[in-house]
Amino acid sequence: MSTSPAKVAVLISGRGSNMQALAGEQGEAYRIVLVASDRPEAAGLTWAREHGLESFALSPKGIGKAAYEEALDSALRDAGAEWIALAGYMRLLSDAFVARWRGRIINIHPSLLPKYKGLDTHARAIAAGDAAGGCSVHVVTEELDGGEVLGRAEVPILPGETPDSLAARVLVEEHRLYPATLKAFVRS
C-alpha cells in the first residue's frame, strides 16, 4: 500500500455535489488531481476552479465519442490520475475506455443496485411500491450499472413520497457514502 494519497480524477456533468463531497474528504487516502466534464458550462467546474482544483472540459458534440474519449484520456493521464470517480457524469463510457481503466473507475448510482439501473430510479422505486430507495457505489464495467457493488445506503420511501423528495434524501446519503467508499476502494 502506498503511503501517498491516491490520485483521483472526478468526472461530472452538472452541479457536482458529489464531487464537492469527495473534495471535502480529501486527505491521506486520496486527493483530486482533476475534475473533468463533458459539459463546459457545468456548474461543478466553476466550484472546482474556485476551490483550486484542476479542471478539463470538452463537449463531444462535433468531434464524436472516440475523439472526445481520446482527449479525456490524455487529460486524465497528464494530470497523473490513477483512479476515476464518476459523480453525476451522464455520459456512457465506451467499452474501450472502460477497458483502459479497468478496475480503477467507480460510480455513484441513485438506486439499490442491482435494482433500477439507468435513469428515473426514484420514480421507478416509488412506482414499484418499494419500501426503500437509496444509492450504491459500484465498480464501472462495460455493463451499465453492472459492476461489483462496493457500498450502499438505504432510505425509506415515505407515504406521499415524490421522486424529487426521495432524490433529495438519497443525495444526503450519497454525500456520506461516496467519500467513505472511495477511501476504502483506493486503499484495497
Overview features:
single chain; 188 residues; Rossmann fold; 7-stranded mixed β-sheet; 23% strand
Description:
The protein is an alpha/beta fold and 188 residues long. It has a single domain (6-187), classed as Formyl transferase, N-terminal domain (Rossmann fold, 3-Layer(aba) Sandwich). It contains six helices and seven strands. It has a seven-stranded mixed sheet, sandwiched between helices. Helix 1 (17-24) packs parallel to helix 6 (163-187) and helix 5 crosses helix 6. It is globular. The model has no long low-confidence stretch (mean pLDDT 97).
Percent of residues in helices comes to: 25-40%
Structural class estimated from helices and strands: alpha/beta
Number of helices: 6
Q: Please identify the top-level CATH class.
A: Alpha Beta
The 3D shape can be described as: globular
| Order of strands, widest sheet | 3-2-1-4-5-6-7
Distance between the termini: 8 Å
| CATH architecture label name | 3-Layer(aba) Sandwich
What's this, in brief?
This protein is of the alpha/beta class and 188 residues long. The chain has a single domain, classed as Rossmann fold.
Helices and strands, with pairings:
Blueprint: E1 6-12, H1 17-24, E2 30-37, H2 43-50, E3 55-57, H3 65-78, E4 83-86, H4 95-100, E5 105-109, H5 121-127, E6 132-139, E7 149-156, H6 163-187
Parallel strand pairs: 1-2, 1-4, 2-3, 4-5
Antiparallel strand pairs: 5-6, 6-7
